[in-house]
Amino acid sequence: MSGTWDEHARDWDDNPDVRAYADKAFASLKEHTGPAIGANRYGRVLDFGCGTGLLSEKLAPVAGQIVAIDTSSAMIDVLKSKSIENVIALCVDIDAPSTVNLPALGQPFDLIVASSALAFVPDYRTIVGNLVPLLREGGLFVQWDWLKSGDGGFGLTSAEISAACKDAGLADTRVLEAFVMEGMGDAMTVLMGVGTR
């Protein structure tokens, strides 16, 4: 899968739809979770499936430290080239056994975000189950993914997100329609799942 994303990395940030998605995800994060985190500081953040780091860029001024991970080395190279002071960018697979020994993942996170990433993984429930233990008690897990339309369509349903969050042990889980992306005559809904460890 990462080879496919590598091919898009160089021009990824030039796509206005990609930028709009990151803008809307960040706005919905502030709207729906800001007060729960406190004092406009998101503390220690894990950006899962960070791509070129568009969401990390937005989080950087209001976060203590961001660990941004992706399986695409080309996407990570683009993020590293941005030289964001409080962002550690790593090309890692969260399923790899060696990942648990990475020093950057050794301390718990206050917030884990996954923006348009989890619908692309081969085993969504397993990945959520691997991510949640990286949160501190009371930490927040937030994801954004396309609403699946019809049987076999791409994306996730509210029920799938709720079930994965519940299975991973998250409490106070809610799934909402965060925003709509319009383009080429279509309107696509983006779901936002939020849960507390």
Biggest sheet: strands side by side, in what order? 3-2-1-4-5-7-6
* Poorly predicted runs of 5 or more residues: none
| Amount of helix | 25-40%
Intertermini distance: 29 Å
Count of individual domains: 1
Order of helices and strands: HHEHEHEEHEHEE
CATH class: Alpha Beta
Name the overall outline.
globular
Please report the number of helical segments. 6
Beta content comes to 25-35%
Arithmetic mean of pLDDT: 89
Protein name: Class I SAM-dependent methyltransferase
GO molecular function: methyltransferase activity
Pfam families: Methyltransf_25
Domain Methyltransferase: 45-139
Offer a concise description of the structure.
This is Class I SAM-dependent methyltransferase. The chain is an alpha/beta fold and 197 residues long.
Please tell me about this protein's structure.
This is Class I SAM-dependent methyltransferase. One of its GO terms (molecular function) is methyltransferase activity. Residues 45-139 form the Methyltransferase domain. The protein has one domain: Vaccinia Virus protein VP39 (Rossmann fold). It has 197 residues and is α/β, with parallel strands linked by helices. The chain has a seven-stranded mixed β-sheet with strand order 3-2-1-4-5-7-6. Helix 1 (2-12) runs parallel beside helix 4 (73-81). It has helices at residues 2-12, 16-37, 54-59, 73-81, 124-131, 158-167; strands at 44-48, 65-70, 87-91, 109-115, 135-146, 171-183, 186-196. The model has no long low-confidence stretch (mean pLDDT 89).
